[in-house]
Structures are given as structure tokens and as C-alpha cells.
Design goal:
The structure is a single chain. By secondary structure, this protein is mainly β. Helix content is about 0%, strand content about 45%. The strands form 4 sheets. Strands 1-4-8-12-16-19-22 form a 7-stranded parallel sheet, with no helix packed on it. The radius of gyration is 15 Å and the shape is globular. The N and C termini lie far apart (about 45 Å).
């Protein structure tokens, strides 16, 4: 029987680290493998949730580990009106989920998504795409959004690499988009 959520960080949680503190020379040594959860592999939600780091994890499907059990959302950051801020999603493999990374709610702002392989491997050879979106941000237009999306490999996602919906002031730079029907798509965004 699958879990609903693999790992959950809730209200007033800060400075937690999901994943090993340093990268081991052997691929994936010491990494968490988070797969097959019906809602989210990792979920950060609530109020006053900040400065948490998700780093060096396999979330969903990864070819070296012969996994094919994605989560609904690989990583989910959710908040109603205030407080999921300055969290870091760095250097993970995220593939085979419905959505790779999902940010939702006006209270989700100033987070960083950096250096992840989303829908592929580090050599950009494997098709490990997420079914719909690599990254989906739907957090209501506020002055605070400002999510930084940088230096990610975003490949093979079924619909859109990065989808910004009802969002504002996000920064997207130095990513590689390939083999997504649409790389970057905005709807009802204010920049």
C-alpha cells in the first residue's frame, strides 16, 4: 500500500535537510529514493516554513535504480496566504511523476529551484519525463512570488517544461529545455 506523502515538512518547520549533506563519489550513494506516493514525494506546507533544503534525492523514476514508480507531485510546496518561503530544491533527480515540482498558493514565495535534472539524467540521455509538467507554479499573483528557477535540465515532460499560472516576478535563467512539447508557458502572469 503506497503512502499518501513520502516526506512532509509542516508549519513552523525550518532548517531541515532532506538528503545527504554531501554528494558521495558513487552515484546515488546515501540518497533518498522517494517513489510511488499517491499525493507527493516530498511536501512542504503550512505557515512560517522556511530555509529547508531538499538536495541529492531521487524523486520518482530514475534509470540507474530501475524505478518506475512516480509520485503524483514529485515535490510540492503549498500554502494558503503566508509562509512557505526561502526553501531550496537543489541537485535532485525528478522524473516519472505527474508533475515534477508543484508550487501552489499565495504564501509560497522566494524559493529556489536550482541544478535539478527534471525528466532526464545528468548526461541528458534518458527519457524520465514527468507526465504533465516539469515545474508548475500556480500561486496567485502577489508581489512576493519571486521564485528563482536556474541551471536545471528540463526534458521530456509531457506538456510543458515550466508552466507559470497566475504568478508574478519569478526569475527563470540558465536552464536547458528540450523535448517538451512547450518549454516555457505563462498564463495570467504579471512580471
Amino acid at each position: 500500500i503506497p503512502n499518501r506523502v513520502g516526506v512532509s515538512i509542516g508549519p513552523t518547520a525550518e532548517r531541515h535537510h532532506i538528503g545527504p549533506l554531501k554528494r558521495h563519489p558513487q552515484a546515488h550513494e546515501g540518497w533518498n529514493v522517494i517513489a510511488g506516493n499517491t499525493a507527493a514525494g516530498i511536501k512542504i506546507s503550512g505557515t512560517d516554513v522556511k530555509n529547508n533544503t531538499i538536495r541529492y534525492n531521487v524523486i520518482g523514476k530514475e534509470s540507474d535504480l530501475l524505478l518506475d514508480q512516480g509520485n503524483h507531485n514529485g515535490i510540492s510546496l503549498e500554502s494558503g496566504t503566508w509562509g512557505v518561503t526561502e526553501n531550496y530544491i537543489i541537485d535532485n533527480f525528478i522524473g516519472g511523476n505527474i508533475n515534477g515540482i508543484f508550487l501552489s498558493g499565495k504564501g509560497v514565495y522566494k524559493n529556489t529551484i536550482h541544478g535539478n535534472a527534471i525528466g532526464t539524467d545528468r548526461l541528458m540521455e534518458e527519457n524520465l519525463g514527468n507526465e504533465r509538467y516539469g515545474i508548475l507554479i500556480d500561486n496567485g499573483t502577489t508581489e512576493l512570488n519571486r521564485t528563482m528557477i536556474s541551471q536545471n535540465l528540463i526534458f521530456h515532460n509531457g506538456e510543458i517544461g515550466v508552466f507559470l499560472k497566475n504568478s508574478s516576478r519569478n526569475r527563470i535563467s540558465n536552464n536547458v529545455f528540450a523535448h517538451n512539447p512547450r518549454g516555457l508557458h505563462e498564463i495570467h502572469c504579471v512580471n
